[in-house]
Fold this sequence. Notes:
By secondary structure, the protein is mainly β. It has a single domain (30-631, 652-685, 761-773), classed as TonB-dependent receptor, beta-barrel domain (Maltoporin, Chain A, Beta Barrel), CATH 2.40.170. The protein has a 22-stranded antiparallel β-barrel. A five-stranded mixed sheet has the order 1-6-7-4-5. Strand 27 and strand 28 form a beta hairpin. The radius of gyration is 26 Å and the shape is globular. The termini are far apart. Mean pLDDT is 90; it is low at 1-40.
Amino acid sequence: MMTRTLLLGGAALTALIAVPAAAQTDTTAASQDQASASETNGADIIVTGTRAAGRTRLDSVSPVDVLSQAALQHQGTTEAAAALANVAPSIDFPRPAVTDATDAIRPATLRGLSPDQTLVLINSVRAHPSALLNINSSVGRGAAAVDLNTIPTAALESIEVLRDGASALYGSDAIAGVVNLRLRQQRSGGGASVTFGGYDTNVDTLYSPRHVVDGGTTTASVWQNVAIGNNGGYLDVTGEFVNRNPTSRGDVDSRDDPAVVRSRYGDPDVNQYTGYANLGVPIGDSGWQVVGWGGYQYRRSQSAAFPRNPSNANNVPEIYPNGFLPIIQTKSRDLTAAGGIKGAIGGWDTSLIASYGKNKIDFATLHTLNHAYGADSPTRFYDGAMSYDQFVTNLDLSHDYALGGGDLTVAAGAEYRREGYKITPGELGSYDQGGAQGFGGFSPDNAVNHHRDNVSGYLDLEGKFGPLSIGAAGRLEHYSDFGTTANGKLSARWDITPSFALRGGIQTGFRAPSLQQEYFTSVSSVITDGNVILTGTLPSVSDNARILGGKPLKPEKSTNYSAGFVFHQGPFNITVDGYEIDIRDGLALSESIGHGFSDAVDALLDEANVGAARFFLNGVKTRTRGVDVVANYKLATPAAGTFNFTVAGNYNDLKVLKVPQTTSALDPAPPLVSRQRIVSLEDGTPATKVTGTIDWSLKPVGFTLRGTYYGDVNEPGTSEDRDIHTGKKFITDIEARFDVADQFHFGLGVDNVFDVYPDRTPANLLSSTGVVSYPFYSPFGFNGRYLYAKVGVDW
């Protein structure tokens, strides 16, 4: 079957070569020119997926994409996750709406797998996930993932994406691959930039087509690079401010007269401040260096819940005679701090680094009420908070040996990690007797405070003997809550000629259940076929969950296979990599279990004052097969400037092979993993995504044209006739740039030039609220054409 996958990749490549595409070359600063040139000719040195020095993306054993800062900045978005998804076809970044806090902290996916099955590193050290657990019906349901948007793109030197499992190297979460955010390391210069943008679009909803100008966004960044000493020391500091106005793409609410748009279905209102720093200080002439980095972000987001029309049973006309639109406010405070030393001991390169990360999210519901309090109800409630923190210490050692006419890199290390998760209750009115409309608060019964720790050790061998490269790695981890797991990796590369090489590997992987999945508990409003049902989410080991069949959670396990080739000749290079990822014991949030299965279940739901309950469980088995193709050609001409053509495509086929059918307590049981969940896993991200870019520069001007094809995505309903499809879409982006005196930089651009939307929700599936007028599973969102302007200065 892997052979068939590779043949599909070859067929796909034939089609892809015909599509004009692009590399990323920046005309705004010399350093960005160099970074982009390095990326396009394959000479960039990588540090992800290998501990051998001097490896580049074209001579690596595993597939690694290197995306320069220029590539991330040559587009309208200033969000790191959205920019990454625009240029890396194996990554998707949906923009869900009316999904509570997931509107504000949106997860990205790699190869269609769960967001928490991709490991995120900062300077090759494990980053901490968000405190948020995505429990609503969005892509990534049930995951607590790293928020990629906590780091400004201006603070990044590059992003490396390892498209291969890597648990043997890095531990938990690296089932789909690894995203390594590499911070800027420069000793001089600085700059500032401001980007203004907004949507100018024709919203073609079924009953309320209209022209809209909204979503105005201002991003202001400033950075400074400072030399420390004369031995290569550096300090790079970045600050960023973002203000984003909300968007609204809902349709008419027909429940009351007048029939008008009462919703705010789209992006949240955001106000955000971020600071980041990266430090390296040599210790005299010893060869040792003190390193450190860290950042802090405050993000206030306000997203809308479903509107309450004037005649809604939960409305209080004395307070809201025209109905009301509850606003869910999150205040996310995110901290990262890391420090340590690097040097050599007895010929062994040595690194000892400790890092601490914490994310706290405070919740509030605005423009709301508690119906039980009548006309005396407050209209604003504090709903409580969730927090997650992580402390990690890494010791890494590596040594290069000459062996048998070749080179052998021996690497070994150990890691200690401690995690904590906490839920703090909100004020009484936020949860009392039904709680705040739109988003009920956490009650004292939901309060949790849990910790765990784990220790691990690894050994990694990578040798190059003439045309053959061989790698082997093993890792052993012990968790305080579920025990020990061991994983291994074998990989090889054969350079048949100086231009052509075959590569492949096999490895096992795992993902530990997160503390959020083990202990999160709440009561929330869940939308099922347009109906709002109060639903309790229970820890699987709680007494109440055991009544429903809950059990202690186990790690997810995976086996990854990969095979592909690399070809590079002069200014042209191409990589094709097929893969298969088999996952067993996959975690899922069960479907809501309502009344009628037993007296014990009915009593549980009545006591909790909810209509249904759910919990996490193991037992999902999936198989993912696909192929990645990346091709680049660079043409430099003395008179016409430099052209970079890049085309990159991903074909991904995920199949759910098995789901849990019953519980020890409920037999026969309701569907624990419904058709909606299965279809969401299989068809919730595009099976095919192809990005082609043409980037041209002839100082002082530059131009980028990008086209992206997205295959159809299915936002599933309870039955096939209730599915909502996005359709197959092609998005076109354009940006023009020019410099003045090599110091002042200006740019104009349009993302989604032709104002393309996903297919709208069919009339028979559009609820009377008119809210979900477009599928929020859309991989490119549903906001339409975005216009922007940039101005910057270097010093």
